Amino acid sequence: DNQSDGNITIGAIGATVAADEITSFTVATSGDANGGTTVLDMDDIDAEGATFSTFSVDLKGTYGTSDLDTITAKDMGDISLVTDDNGTSLAVEKFLVADGTTSSVGNVTINAGAAFDGLDEFITTGATGTVGNVSITSKGATTIADTDGEEAIKSALTVGDITLNVTAAAGSINLGDFDAATTIGNISFTGTGTIEWDGAPAATTIGNISGSVAAGEEVDLTDNANAMGTTAGTMGTTTVTGAGTFGLEVGAVTTLGNID
Questions:
Q1: For residues 142, 98, 150 and 79, what is the CA-based torsion angle, rounded to 10 degrees?
Q2: Which residue of 39, 48, 198, 254 has the lowest C-beta tally within 10 Å?
Q3: Rounded mean pLDDT for each run of 10 residues along the chain, 260 residues in total
Q4: What's the pTM value of the predicted model, to 2 decimals?
């Protein structure tokens, strides 16, 4: 609908009997900047025994205030949530992928052209689960588990590379901690706007940290008095450029790479 006039309303899936046969999910709008305000309104998806290969949302055009409720699955492949900058906002409650002890999630990509919001425990895995690479790009305000003490990723012991990019001075990312993660990949960021992340306080293996902070902006990777890493941990090198403010509190790691 290139006039952005049609709404998409999806009721609860699996409310009576879990929709365990689902293998993937995609919802998309194709509007432009010249029409109305398409709204996506999606209730819970209960597929607690299902393995999704992909979960994808792509909102184009002048979409209105849109939302997705909780998505429940046994395992989840790659998650892609993309919105362009002509719309209003997208809110996603959470992905509950914890039916089994090893329940895991693939790569997570969020590319938000406007406001984006996710709740506490935005991604929950099994007790020994993993999450792939996490990439968040924000032109607007992105808030995920942004209240002190909330977790953006819950239970996962391993999380891949983390990329946080704010592409406009008016944009921001405010991200809760990865509370249980013991292994974290490389961390990179572009702070054209403000980035606040509550870090990975339990991590014993952390890759290299690199990025830039624009003048007048702030990037804090251990917001809300958290630390990055813990006792007997190992952290790679830290390289930061730019005229802005960079914050990082390192825990009681045993091995710490060069800081530049």
A1: -10
A2: 254
A3: 74 96 93 76 96 96 93 98 94 96 97 98 98 98 96 98 97 97 98 97 98 98 92 97 97 96
A4: 0.96
